[in-house]
Amino acid sequence: MAAETVSNLIFTGPLAWTVDAACVGQTDLFFAPAGERPETRILREARSRAICRNCEVVAPCRDWARSMREYGFWGGESEEERAAAGYRVDMPVGRVARYPKGDGQPVKPRESRVA
Length: 115
Ligand code: SF4
Description:
Elements: H1 6-11, H2 27-30, H3 38-53, H4 58-68, H5 79-84
The protein binds iron/sulfur cluster.
């Protein structure tokens, strides 16, 4: 069996939907920089969410991020929202307390502070 390559994943495999992504070239909006402050994160994620809202591949994007336990903002969901839906990110020690513990069950996401 041939080794799976990144280009195979993107062009013919489970990431084929990425060619229609509305966020191309906007990585900075979808992944937090080191040391991002909570207030900045809220604003960044609000901008990400607005882009996702008009994206035609939101469903496969969300499914991918949930199944792969991705970091960042995918498919209209933050890491916390994925955790609340039962798809908690595996994270380094020290960040665990920020995320809800679902014990395999969905938990309520933190209330948004953005009006
Ligand atoms: S749903 Fe959002 S994160 Fe996913 S491809 Fe579209 S714009 Fe990017």
